Amino acid sequence: xxxxxxxxxxRDAFHNRGVRYLLLGKSAAFVLGFPxxxxxxxxxxxxxxxxxxxxxxxxxxxxxxxxxxVAAEIxxxxxxxxxxxxxxxxDLIFAPDGIDSFEIAWKRHLEIQGxxxxxxxxxxxxxxxxxxxxxxxxxxxxxxxxxYWVEHHRTEGxxxxxxxxxx
Length: 167
Hints:
There is one protein chain. With 167 residues, the chain is of the alpha+beta class. It has one domain: Beta Polymerase, domain 2 (2-Layer Sandwich). The protein has helices spanning 4-17, 25-32, 49-62, 68-76, 102-108, 120-130, 133-155, 163-166, and strands at 21-23, 41-45, 80-83, 90-93, 110-112, 115-117. A 4-stranded mixed beta sheet has the order 1-2-4-3, with helices on both faces. Strands 5-6 form a two-stranded antiparallel ribbon. Helix 1 crosses helix 3 (49-62), helix 2 packs antiparallel against helix 6 and helix 3 packs across helix 4 (68-76). The protein is globular, with a radius of gyration of 15 Å.
């Protein structure tokens, strides 16, 4: 099960190696305060050879055992790579459904205690586009959380946009 300390471990290792990434899926929602669980960490890395090389080194720093084949897939930015050879499960999603590009998601991302996370609207868009039964089951709760989150941040004076303001 994903724990906040894993987000901190990723943050530190990825920062030390200069990896550009965003947390995605329920991992991102969890860091934003979504009261649910997820089994692994979903990471949306920027797809570039240099970022892929830095990502391989950061994952090794964290204790992941990577074969040469898997390291090469990470370096070239294979669309989806699932890793279970380390201290926790991690999904690397270089081409998430429902998100046009890393740069677009980066412009909308949020930093929570130094952890870069996808905006909750991108999390929801990705879940809808993936069109999996388990995602459809959690969507009503994610949407309710999103509505609460937006309203809560507006009342605190934070600059938080609604989906219609940036569509």
